[in-house]
Design a protein that fits this description.
By secondary structure, the protein is of the alpha/beta class. The chain is built from 11 helices and 10 strands. The chain has 2 domains: about 150 residues, Nucleotidyltransferase, domain 5, CATH 3.30.420; about 170 residues, ATPase, nucleotide binding domain (Nucleotidyltransferase, domain 5, 2-Layer Sandwich). It is about 35% helix and about 15% strand. Strands 3-2-1-4-5 form a 5-stranded mixed sheet. A 5-stranded mixed sheet has the order 8-7-6-9-10, sandwiched between helices.
Length: about 350
């Protein structure tokens, strides 16, 4: 355990704790990422083993010098003290873990813990210059982020604050039911948008629809047990009709869920990101076209639909920035975000 740095000096550590890996980086005050570290998550071995990995990463990232604050993202619910309060199906025994206290002891600095989707949203908000468009950026007062990857997650930022609801459980948009009694979701319920528009689900849609088509993708799908979303969108770019059919189903489901979010949250900006979007830019345009059909008129007026500014390290940057918010002024934070985003944007 380190003595606590109460002077606010030093760099910021961001951690992203997931079921497959624990990742971290060290963000310097000029926006440089001076060190990175990653380890497999021993998810089946329980919380103590996962904490040991996270603490080891902090030790590695602390080595170059002082650390002012740590931010960490994790699946599931998190209370205000940084304790895991909801089940995390991908990490055995994670519920009840006092993650915030453990990370603070390991770093000798304040630690903040939030749901991982909220931190990706926070990074996208900060990279846009905050609410007022800092340093010439366009800005967003109310930003909804939807991340499409293995699953679908989300986060919502209003005037620089993460609005996570009780224990950061809000904006679990992937489990909004858009088709009652529809496709089976990994959560055990039917009709969730994640069962239609996550990366694996888009691939499964193509496999299931393949018998009705005679295209290159259909032939590939019939000869494989699974295909991925990137293959679907690569085929779509070539005009493949099966790819278009799978995309249409995914876009429609996603638009329905975002229509609900527009009614409840009234964002001025909707950001779509995550691994699926790397090959699916058309998804943004189609969701923008379809979503207004699922909400009353004024709720969609003036809403911007945009792709993510940041690449796969958005969650890490959001974690580091959220930790930094305890040590920096709003203007300093947005300067740091702009400098970091310039280096970490999509490659």
């Amino acid at each position: 355990m380190r003595s606590t740095n109460t002077g606010g000096e030093g760099a910021f550590i961001g951690l992203d704790i997931g079921g497959q890996s624990v990742k971290g980086f060290r963000l310097e005050r000029d926006g440089r990422v001076s060190a990175r570290a990653s380890r497999p998550t021993p998810a089946s071995l329980g919380s103590a083993a996962v904490l040991a990995v996270a603490e080891g990463l902090i030790a590695e990232l602390h080595a170059p010098g002082l650390v002012a604050a740590v931010g960490a993202g994790t699946p599931g619910g998190v209370d205000r003290s940084g304790r895991i309060v909801g089940e995390a199906a991908n990490i055995e025994g994670w519920q009840g873990t006092d993650l915030g206290a453990a990370l603070s002891r390991a770093a000798g600095a304040p630690a903040s813990v939030r749901n991982d989707g909220n931190l990706a949203a926070y990074a996208e908000w900060a990279a846009r210059g905050g609410a007022s468009g800092h340093a010439g950026a366009r800005g967003s007062r109310a930003l909804l982020f939807v991340g499409l990857g293995t699953g679908i997650g989300g986060g919502y930022i209003e005037d620089g604050c993460i609005l996570g609801g009780v224990d950061d459980k809000a904006v679990e948009i992937g489990h909004a039911i858009v088709y009652p009694e529809g496709r089976l979701c990994v959560c055990g319920r039917r009709g969730c948008v994640e069962a239609y528009a996550s990366g694996p689900s888009i691939g499964r849609l193509a496999v299931e629809l393949a018998p009705g088509f005679d295209t290159a993708l259909a032939r590939a799908a019939r000869g494989a047990s699974a295909i991925n979303a990137r293959e679907v969108y690569d085929a779509l770019a070539l005009g493949d009709e099966l790819a278009a059919a799978a995309h249409t189903v995914a876009a429609e489901a996603l638009a329905r869920s975002i229509g609900l979010a527009l009614a409840f949250l009234a964002p001025d900006t909707v950001v779509l990101g995550g691994g699926v979007l790397a090959g699916a830019k058309r998804l943004i345009a189609d969701v923008e076209r379809l979503a207004p059909g699922y909400v009353y008129g004024s709720a969609s007026e003036g809403v911007r639909f945009e792709g993510a500014l940041l690449g796969p390290e958005a969650g890490l940057l959001g974690a580091a920035l959220y930790g930094a918010s305890s040590a920096l002024s709003r203007e300093e934070l947005l300067d740091l975000a702009a400098a970091a985003a310039a280096r970490l944007g999509p490659k």
